[in-house]
Amino acid sequence: MGYELAPEHWRKGIMAEVIKRVVQYGFEGTLRDCFYEKGKFVDAVVFAILSEDHR
Q: How large is the greatest C-alpha to C-alpha distance in the chain, in angstroms?
């Protein structure tokens, strides 16, 4: 993923919010309690697009 943003809009959190939304909508999955780490179960977030879905 790449993007360009005019310098006058840098450091306002604009692209951080956009990327967060795109990832959540497009290809994020959460594996709940899938790892045991430091005495507790933790989630993992997986990002993927299958070749047959990318057209």
A: 46
